[in-house]
Design a protein that fits this description.
Elements: H1 13-32, E1 34-35, E2 42-43, H2 45-56, H3 58-73, H4 93-111, H5 117-143, H6 147-154, H7 159-180
Antiparallel strand pairs: 1-2
Length: 184
């Protein structure tokens, strides 16, 4: 599969696969830093998703999140609540799917030449908005919540924290790229 995708950068399939696996593991670990709330727990996963997109680029960042969601889909309890595939149909399902889109769009924006930290932060804010869009929509459709309630329980309490996560991701991007030996 890695050979059929147009590469974001000129790296060997082994290096790309290792980077993708690393960010899949980082996302799993970020799920373990969790404060249980209903219907959506507070986790550090948005930080991992934004870092995946900013450091790996759109394709590999999204692939890392596809791998993460795939592990959940096959029943592994790597989500924040340890539910396995049930997490995809519960309140967090939309947010988990949104991770894929957020990593892609954040990576795409950073690949377009956002060189300054504040520009990467804005790319991260867009990524967070994508996660919220998928998650809140899922709460409306899948859980039958009104748009106001879905926003109130699924996005509003997390905004200040996720804006800080976007700052952290933007600040860590250059060091992360150097550490992985990638240049965007």
């Amino acid at each position: 599969m890695l050979r059929t995708l147009k590469q974001t950068r000129d790296w060997s399939p082994a290096v790309r696969l290792a980077s993708i696996a690393l960010f899949t593991i980082i996302t799993i670990l970020a799920a373990r830093i969790s404060i249980p709330l209903d219907p959506v727990p507070f986790t550090m996963q948005p930080l991992a998703v934004l870092l995946a997109g900013m450091i790996l680029g759109r394709r590999d960042g999204a692939l890392s999140q596809i791998a993460y969601v795939g592990l959940i889909a096959v029943g592994l309890p790597v989500d924040a609540r340890g539910l396995g595939s049930a997490a995809l149909v519960g309140g967090t399902g939309g947010f988990l799917i949104g991770f894929i889109a957020a990593a892609w769009i954040t990576g795409w924006l950073v690949e377009r030449g956002v060189a300054r930290v504040w520009q990467r932060w804005l790319a991260g804010v867009v990524g967070v908005a994508v996660i919220y869009a998928f998650g809140v929509a899922w709460l409306i459709v899948g859980r039958g919540l009104t748009p106001e309630v879905a926003w109130t329980v699924g996005a509003a309490p997390f905004i200040p924290f996720d804006l800080v996560k976007a700052v952290i991701a933007a600040a860590l991007t250059e060091g992360g790229r150097r550490w992985l030996g990638r240049a965007v």
